[in-house]
Amino acid sequence: MEALDRIVIGLNNLSVKARRPRVKPGQILVLLPSCLQAGDCKQNVVGDLAGCRRCGRCRIGPLLDLCERAGVAAALVKGGRMAVKLARQEHIRAVVAVACEKELRAGILACLPKATIALINRRPHGPCTETDVDVAEVEKAIRWLTRAREY
Description:
Layout: H1 2-19, E1 28-33, H2 60-70, E2 73-77, H3 80-87, E3 94-99, H4 101-111, E4 115-120, H5 135-146
Parallel strand pairs: 1-2, 1-3, 3-4
């Protein structure tokens, strides 16, 4: 099933790029899975990213720094329902979503016709535990949507 999900994600990303949407930073939402947070972190930042101390033990701090520089909204969510609820907000025109294949496939379909660039997270410790994502790939997706050269 993961292989099929990867195909759906790849086709979605190609479709978004073919449509060439151009959106303002304030219309972009970066959705991050709660499993990006370090497993032994004492800060509960789900739903309130302001609580992140940006200690450097996980990617959340660098991702928040990027989103602030780019002027885009970010949310750390525990599941697909909350992610879809946030993505369906009227002022959001594009989403950069980070998650596992299954969650991305479901989210892409739930958010249509909004432009969603999907980035598969890395799972060096197994599923749903201290996952990882390349911050440069998230930045690249945001820059592509806004047509900005750098942040």
